[in-house]
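Need tokens for this chain, all 357 residues.
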Amino acid sequence: MSFKCGIVGLPNVGKSTLFNAVTNSSKAQAANFPFCTIDPNVGIVAVPDYRIDNLAKISSSKKIINTTISFVDIAGLVKGASKGEGLGNKFLSHIREVDAIIHLIRCFDSDDIQNVNPDVNPVRDLEIIETEMMLADLESIQKRLEKNNKKNIDDDQINILEIALDCINNEKNIEILRSQYDKKILNQSGLLSLKPKIFVCNVDEQSVQKGNIYTKNFIDKYGEENTLIISADIENQINQLEKDEKKNYMDMIGLKETGLDLLIQKGYKILELDTFFTSGPEETRAWTIQKNCKAPKAAGEIHTDFEKGFIRAETVSYDDFIANEGWLNSKTNGKMRLEGKDYIIKDGDVLNFRFNT
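Here are the structure tokens for all 357 residues:
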């Protein structure tokens, strides 16, 4: 499986610049006027993982195949979008299609870049976006709970929509639904307000290490856990450099990790994802699965026949595979295990599936 992150925000906050940086492309038009992005741009990026290179080296693999993440650059939203202002409903429909939302928030001053608001205020800007998504949810919920439509919805979804309606109307935290319902069931509701969120404070070069007054105000309000401080301009510069130049430049400005790495790490965390590997002479490959995924379901990521005919999973942890230099020594030294249908895959497991055809 691959997952899809939508980059959203007000016009002119740097969405297209960040998209071009993390996807190492120039697909998205970046210009100094609102709505320069109309149709969403989509970029698929290989997920960097040092483990896959180490496994491939030990297995003398001919090919290396990383798992991927998709980034979607979505048109800028304005106040009133839920009523059709700006690109309105088109914008909101694009958000419904992503697994997680990257809220890009302006945290820099510039006389050269237009601001749709009179001043820089990241807290207010996020509240505009969240309010518009909530209003869009409100309209959707009311339609789905109408008598004629209600008969087509199961009881769980009706309960979720009714609780969400109460939360929106009475300014309660809609996140309470997460403690009451499984994530898979919540996802079926299609509510924008329940999409997992990453907050990205877009700063200038001087603020990339320690932030600034704008990032401080934002973190004071929304906390550090799902907040990243990134300079879209710097990320764009980094991705235009060769590997050695890139490292030297990052060392010079004090960056330990790229924005892409930070976004992927945070994305895996909020979406509760893990990675397992297959490794042999032909190829070493990374696969993305949900946390607490059982072995047959993981096998199904490779091929549906693997899940249907699942017998056992030959399993070695990444550390044991490296320490024992591959499958043969891992088996000889008792580090390879045969796991059954109830085995829950752990992040970094190296697997070989046995199955009936």
